[in-house]
Amino acid sequence: xxxxxxxxxxxxxxxxxxxxxxxxxxxxxxxxxxxxxxxxxxxxxxxxxxxxxxxxxxxxxxxxxxxxxxxxxxxxxxxxxxxxxxxxxxxxxxxxxxxxxxxxxxxxxxxxxxxxxxxxxxxxxxxxxxxxxxxxxxxxxxxxxxxxxxxxxxxxxxxxxxxxxxxxxxxxxxxxxxxxxxxxxxxxxxxxxxxxxx
Length: 198
What we know:
This protein is 71% helix and 0% strand. It is built from nine helices and no strands. It has helices at 6-31, 34-39, 55-78, 84-101, 103-108, 111-120, 123-145, 155-166, 178-192. Helix 4 packs parallel to helix 8 (155-166). 20% of the residues are buried. The mean pLDDT is 83.
């Protein structure tokens, strides 16, 4: 059996990632098979393991890419924001819009998918993943602290409050007027975590 050239390996990995994005978004991690992933790329299922250790590893690779893209979007959206309240509003808007419109990210935060991923991690790795999410939000929170407008609260608590607020997107069907509920929640959180409580 011949090996792959570097160019072939790059193409196959790129195509596996593209197939994974589409299939995971449509069917989720549990219902997507390795055969479905490899069929769309034109390789045998056993060849998949030359590229990723498991479909969970591919899923995490894709999510890391989504996370990097989202961080870029956040930095761009927040580059001209110089006060904490506007920053919180913008950050929540970007995160909620991502959860509302990106089926892959929305699938990730479903309880079933989180359970599948947790089963792949040690407690230490899961704690590390949570710490990375909090660290991302903390980087913005620390900038806002310098404005003097952030409420005197533990930055980790503020980060967790911001993360918790985004979960309203998972229950949008529960509300008759979701957009107004979402906007009101953003207002309450933005005012609540900032010290300037006009």
